[in-house]
Amino acid sequence: MDMTMKTVQEFLGPEPMTGIDGERGRHWIRHEDGDRLWLVLDRQEVSTNTFNEEVFRELNALLAHAEQENWKAIVFRSAKYSGFAAGADLSQFRGVEPSAELDARIAEANAVIDRIAALKATTIAVVHGTCVGGGLELALACDRIVARDDAKFGFPEVLVGLHPGLGGTARLTHRIQPIEAMTLMLTGKTVDARKGRSLGFVDAVVPERDVGKAVDEAVAGRMERRGGGRTGDALNLYPARKAAAYQMRNETEKRAPAEHYPAPQALIDLWEKHGGSEADMLKAERQSFAQLLPLPVTQNLIRAFFLREKLKGNGKGKSGIAHVHVVGAGTMGAEIGAWCALKGMRVTIEDPQVASLGRAVAGAHKLINRKLHGPEALHARDRFIPDTNGVGLRHADLVIEAAPEKPELKRSIYARLEKEVRADTIIATNTSSLDLAALFEGLAKPDRFVGIHFFNPVSKLDLVEVVRHDGVDEEVYSKALRFVADIGKLPLPVKAAPGFLVNRALMPYLGEALLMIDEGEQPERIDAAAEAFGMPVGPVELADQVGLDICLAVADSLAESLERPMPPVPQWLREKVQAGQLGRKTGKGLYDYDSDNKPKKDKVKQAPDKAMRDRMLLPMLDAVASTLEAGVVPDADSADAAMIFGTGFAPFRGGPMHYAKERGYADVAATMEKLVLVHGPRFTPSRWWQRAHD
């Protein structure tokens, strides 16, 4: 090979791979270094390593060859800048059905990992960046794990309806304290390298310059295995497992009901029944994994993963935006600015009220301190700059207006902005429902005006609607999409229309819930009906979270601008808003709130029924269909992604349009026709259903 000669330690590290002295296969590089063999993963045509059958078969051949040689150590590493490995390539799991072939594929992949665990040579995983799922399972099969200080570990399988399936459940619960291991797997959270070391599965944490020294220590037998001696932990004995499993089930059921999310309970069962023996648990894990994978719930959660990737793809490439100026330091403006500062951008936030700026700074510091630590947090706090006089406008690459939903006020702000910002500065509005064409009327350069609509709370909801109008410059619009991706959010392209997508879909859902309360229905029962369907919170609690003032403003706006009728707004809602009872943010709304800002709910007096659920949910589905009819969103998959990541629509159902398809478009339309007879013409189904059915 005509390559620059480098050692593996020099070659891998902070910079992406450019060449190495070794034998390159398609996905693996085999490098001989004295009495050590380095197997370096570099899956072709992707930026992040993932595992599929081809990767495992090539590795299996390398291991078979290595077994015939006399290596003192075999070291596994990655050539990718992004990290070690991000687990399985989920595309190979889509559409699978129970079969002997599926069982054989799972067994074949496990045989490769088991082969690593059985090697006579000392095995070492040198990990940097991302090491999750199957990547962590490969590392756990090694004798030692050496982590670079930027490494992140975790088992996110539970988020796609699975649990680890390459021996991770058995090896982790026998390598570290089993309750800690189960917690890591049940939550799907990642931990950094130092936390991994304190838990016991990481044996050393070093900077890149000391990786070679750490490998030497491991090969010489001078590196103590952090998790050593824990395999006989009393917590893996059956009485302790049984007691702990009981508590885990109760806690898990609160967060993820087994009816909708079977994987966490399957994992608990697996450990309770087989945790006393690593060999038994390895065998049972494969059977459990094979049973979970074809379930509709799992397939829909895997679908949700790819829907997220679809949204990410809307913002490929860097925006070049470094300075964001936010106009308005209310709740939304402050959160938008804080999030941008957290993600590395310089933020100036403008408001005429010094008190509002003070609250914004306090809120930003609280968010930043929760997410970052040490110098990173300090730098992020420094990037969030209160600006009473709008000085930051002259330097901003992007201005986001987050003023109250009053068209006259917004238009006056834009007129001022045009005079003060650079010629290439993008001007964006965070309006949730106002007509963009009316807002930019009178601007000299409407082509640089765009909608960037965040959702509350900004720090928790990933979706951002990026709203185009007929006169927008295509590069401006593309740059806005890329900006959203730059700050770690999911950009959804939408066409300017009343309510865009999410609010247009949510308001009929919330409106019907309010009418049910008006008819005397118990709010807790209404919420229970939606939660039984799989919504994270019911519509009554959601309205309080959004803010009753916001709900009222959007409802009135949509009632005025949409041709089809909306649910009428009860007079008592207007009175609540006028009295300042706006929901969670004021401590009183449709519910009263305790000192922890949690709603005070009574017990549900009567179990909810399917009719209640359909009355609330079908108008939501129909509103999504109407946006497809009007071309507000590009396609049904984009709409499903938006509703999952913007509203929390039950992800295990694959999104509202996917649910409608599985239920049957004709059934949705027919049920709505029945609701017309009971509740009136607002339930008249969209024409989209008929065309989709045809």
Automatic annotation (TrEMBL):
CDD domains: crotonase-like. Pfam families: 3HCDH (PF00725), 3HCDH_N (PF02737), ECH_1 (PF00378). GO terms for molecular function: enoyl-CoA hydratase activity; long-chain (3S)-3-hydroxyacyl-CoA dehydrogenase (NAD+) activity; NAD+ binding. Pathway: Lipid metabolism; fatty acid beta-oxidation. InterPro entries: 3-OHacyl-CoA_DH_NAD-bd, 3HC_DH_C, 6-PGluconate_DH-like_C_sf, ClpP/crotonase-like_dom_sf, Enoyl-CoA_hydra/iso, FA_oxidation_alpha_subunit, NAD(P)-bd_dom_sf. Keywords: Fatty acid metabolism, Lipid degradation, Lipid metabolism, Lyase, Multifunctional enzyme, NAD, Oxidoreductase. GO terms for biological process: fatty acid beta-oxidation. In the central section; belongs to the 3-hydroxyacyl-CoA dehydrogenase family. This is Fatty-acid oxidation protein subunit alpha. It comes from Novosphingobium malaysiense.
